[in-house]
């Protein structure tokens, strides 16, 4: 059975975003790409012997591919899937399962550098495209009160690694090497490259 459109469909949409993330929707709007939002459910279990980057790339592609197969899409719009994970010491930090889990994650990130990997994939009726962005982020040292108060804000609840760089947690970031939008959840440079390759150039709307 096809998945029905979500309530926030845009009739001028040029793309379906197979994600419930408001940050990804906002980032696409930032570069002028109207989207229809329709999240999909896939198995996000990590496979045995799967690399960290291989895992996040697979999830992004599976979201896009599954979305193209099941979403009600009479106009054959391209479907974009994306996924973000935080890596430290070779371990993957996904969204926290509880607020105690979030506090544990933040304590681990405190005063250290970690990697943020975000993959983006686009599926059309004839193409399967993907790209990966990896960035390095260094956290300031946080005391227990910092962590407790930040988690109490609720911002950590649905974020990979238990923080949102675009929000309250921005004050904890000492240094970033890579893509700010990638750490947010959608690397705009790589995303634009994929969009242009399928004929969607966000800049074409601006004409002199």
What would you note in describing this structure?
It contains six helices and seven strands; from the N terminus they run βαβαββαββαβαα. It is of the alpha/beta class and 208 residues long. It has one domain (15-205): Maf protein. Strands 1, 2, 3, 4, 5, 6 and 7 form a seven-stranded mixed β-sheet that branches. Helix 3 (99-109) packs across helix 4. It is globular and about 50 Å long. The termini are far apart.
In CATH's first tier, which class applies? Alpha Beta
Which sequence of SSEs, written as H and E, runs from N to C? EHEHEEHEEHEHH
Radius of gyration: 17 Å
CATH architectural type: Alpha-Beta Complex
Number of separate helices: 6
Tell me the overall shape: globular
* Global mean pLDDT: 93
Separation of termini? 45 Å
Low-confidence stretches: 1-11
Number of domains: 1
Query: Do you know the CATH topology?
Result: Maf protein
Helix-and-strand structural type = alpha/beta
Seen as an oligomer or otherwise, the chain set is single chain
Give the % helix: 25-40%
Proportion in β-strands: 15-25%
Q: What is the number of E strands?
A: 7
Quick summary:
The protein is built from six helices and seven strands; from the N terminus they run βαβαββαββαβαα. It has 208 residues and is of the alpha/beta class.
Secondary structure topology:
Blueprint: E1 15-17, H1 22-30, E2 35-37, H2 52-70, E3 79-88, E4 91-93, H3 99-109, E5 113-123, E6 128-139, H4 144-152, E7 173-177, H5 180-184, H6 188-197
Parallel strand pairs: 1-2, 1-3
Antiparallel strand pairs: 3-4, 3-5, 5-6, 6-7
């Amino acid at each position: 059975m096809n998945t029905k459109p979500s309530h926030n469909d845009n009739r001028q949409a040029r793309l379906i975003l197979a994600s419930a993330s408001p940050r990804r929707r906002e980032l696409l709007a930032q570069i002028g790409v109207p989207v229809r939002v329709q999240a999909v459910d896939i198995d996000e279990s990590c496979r045995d012997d799967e690399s960290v980057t291989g895992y996040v790339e697979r999830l992004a592609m599976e979201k896009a591919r599954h979305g193209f197969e099941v979403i009600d899409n009479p106009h054959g719009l391209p479907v974009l899937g994306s996924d973000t994970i935080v890596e430290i010491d070779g371990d993957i930090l996904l969204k926290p399962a509880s607020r105690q889990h979030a506090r544990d994650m933040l304590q681990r990130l405190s005063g250290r550098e970690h990697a943020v990997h975000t993959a983006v994939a686009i599926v059309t009726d004839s193409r399967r495209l993907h790209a990966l962005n990896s960035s390095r982020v260094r956290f300031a040292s946080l005391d227990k009160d910092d962590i407790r108060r930040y988690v109490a804000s609720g911002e950590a609840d649905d974020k990979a690694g238990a923080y949102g760089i675009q929000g309250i947690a921005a004050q904890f970031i000492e240094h970033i090497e890579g893509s700010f939008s990638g750490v947010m959840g959608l690397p705009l440079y790589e995303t634009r490259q994929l969009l242009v390759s399928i004929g969607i150039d966000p800049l074409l709307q601006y004409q002199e």
